[in-house]
Design goal:
The chain is flat, with a radius of gyration of 17 Å. The chain starts with a helix and ends with a helix. It has a domain of 61 residues. The protein contains four helices and no strands. The protein is mainly α and 96 residues long. This is NADH dehydrogenase subunit 6.
Length: 96
């Protein structure tokens, strides 16, 4: 049963993440999507650099090793809610 819940949460997260990306593309077009992807690339590069600089990788890996798969999937629930709400507000103002 736990495995079913875990896969359901994971697939729901991936669905709403894709829906958020397409909603953003519909609202802001191709140039807006390119700017979003470049800013996400920059933010993730900075996060990786800071994690390496402050030697946080071992703490991050130990935290992941202490979690169960279901526990990690439950952390996706706030991201699902954020994706749902963001998609709704992006599509409200999108041109038809």
């Amino acid at each position: 049963m736990e495995q079913l819940v875990m896969y359901t949460i994971l697939f729901t997260f991936l669905f709403f993440l894709g829906f958020l990306i397409t909603s953003f593309a519909k609202r802001f077009g191709g140039k807006g999507l390119l700017l979003l992807l470049l800013s996400l690339l920059l933010a993730s590069s900075i996060a990786v650099f800071l994690s390496h600089h402050f030697r946080l990788w071992s703490d991050i890996f130990h935290w992941f090793l202490s979690q169960t798969a279901a526990g990690v999937s439950y952390w996706l629930l706030p991201l699902i809610l954020f994706s749902m709400a963001s998609s709704f507000f992006l599509l409200r103002k999108a041109p038809v």
